[in-house]
């Protein structure tokens, strides 16, 4: 069970009672932002709920992944680290993709996971906000807004040629890492299929039978979950290498969801490549790639080459900022020593807050 960083836990049972408080001095929110270096240890059980803040650099449409509908938001933190946030459909539907690029993004009570790279995932307790008006957050927001785009400040640091990448993999210098390279697609292996579709009722994939997608085990009335998966060869001026384009990145490249490419545009045969995809051959792209532990190359993002700009100065040489990336709020004092936590219920018609006072700092977990 995810929890917050305290040595004990507090569970609310069915018989728990809550008393409304009208004191206007009680804070309605509390942030305890983690730094990027603190994320990896939080994958160890029991996972700690994590607060994080950054500026939105990229956002994907809502699409299927692992039998769920999700949206991914890429943010840049104060130290120019890139982190991807996966939002469940309930949280994702609150986002208007056309106007959030460059806004300050705050997520509360997320968990840290890893899929090719570190990422955050929303939980049932998570809340998402943009450009919060909390006074204590304004210095952090000001610094984030002044920073250059993510492509300008981070990607050149790991930019590599394909020849250099192949050499590193061959010599086992790197087995797992993040890089960027400027390359173009030269070959698409359409005989391997460019998409697959999962049954909405079971983990198995559906197949095409008489122009209909069917599952061998289930009778399905609703649409399958369509996902791009394209094996290709990319090449730069030094060499070429085989990579895999998965759903999110290919959706960005062709600007069409896999579902619409298959159903709305009538491309139901996974072994026949649509013109919308094959036309992308030969176009240079700035590829954000991950080297998996087995040596497979996965493309996480594809941008126009002009997205990469000259590197900015090392943030370590800049004027020091706050060492701890968190915001605290005044507390209501009590006679006994202890810790106090303030919780604001979501989507509640009652305008009250609950003050939980503990005799000693404890490990508190919430499920609302």
From TrEMBL:
Region of interest called Disordered, as start-end residue ranges on this chain: 303-322
Highest taxon above the source species: Eukaryota
PANTHER family linked: OS03G0429900 PROTEIN
Protein name (record): Replication factor A C-terminal domain-containing protein
The species this protein was found in: Ambrosia artemisiifolia
Lineage: Eukaryota, Viridiplantae, Streptophyta, Embryophyta, Tracheophyta
């Amino acid at each position: 069970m995810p929890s917050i960083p305290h040595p004990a836990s507090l569970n609310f049972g069915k018989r728990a009672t809550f008393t409304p408080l009208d004191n206007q001095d009680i804070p309605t929110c509390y942030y305890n932002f983690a730094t990027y270096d603190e994320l990896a240890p939080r994958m160890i059980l029991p996972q700690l709920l994590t607060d994080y803040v950054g500026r939105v650099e990229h956002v994907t449409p809502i699409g299927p992944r692992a039998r769920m509908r999700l949206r991914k938001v890429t943010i840049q933190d104060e130290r120019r680290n890139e982190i991807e946030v996966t939002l469940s459909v309930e949280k994702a539907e609150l986002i208007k993709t056309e106007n959030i690029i460059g806004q300050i993004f705050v997520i509360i009570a997320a968990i840290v996971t890893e899929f090719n790279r570190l990422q955050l995932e929303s939980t049932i307790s998570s809340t998402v906000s943009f450009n919060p008006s909390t006074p204590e957050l304004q210095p952090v927001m000001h610094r984030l807004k002044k920073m250059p785009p993510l492509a300008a400040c981070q990607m050149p640091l790991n930019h590599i040629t394909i020849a250099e990448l192949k050499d590193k993999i061959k010599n086992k210098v790197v087995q797992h890492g993040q890089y960027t390279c400027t390359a173009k697609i030269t070959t698409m292996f359409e005989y391997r299929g460019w998409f697959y579709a999962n049954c909405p009722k079971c983990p198995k994939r559906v197949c095409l039978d008489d122009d209909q997608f069917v599952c061998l085990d289930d009778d399905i009335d609703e649409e399958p979950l369509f996902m791009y998966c394209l094996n290709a060869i990319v090449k730069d001026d030094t060499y070429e290498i085989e990579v895999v384009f998965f759903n999110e990145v290919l959706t960005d490249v062709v600007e069409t969801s896999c579902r619409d490419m298959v159903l709305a545009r009538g491309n139901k045969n996974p072994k026949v490549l649509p013109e919308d995809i094959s036309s992308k051959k030969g176009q240079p792209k700035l590829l954000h790639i991950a080297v998996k532990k087995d040596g497979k190359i996965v493309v996480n993002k594809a941008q126009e080459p002009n997205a990469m700009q000259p590197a900015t100065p090392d943030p370590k040489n800049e004027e020091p900022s706050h060492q701890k990336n968190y915001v605290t709020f005044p507390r209501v004092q009590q006679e006994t020593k202890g810790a106090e936590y303030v919780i604001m219920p979501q989507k509640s018609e009652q305008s009250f807050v609950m003050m939980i006072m503990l005799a000693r700092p404890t490990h508190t977990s919430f499920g609302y």
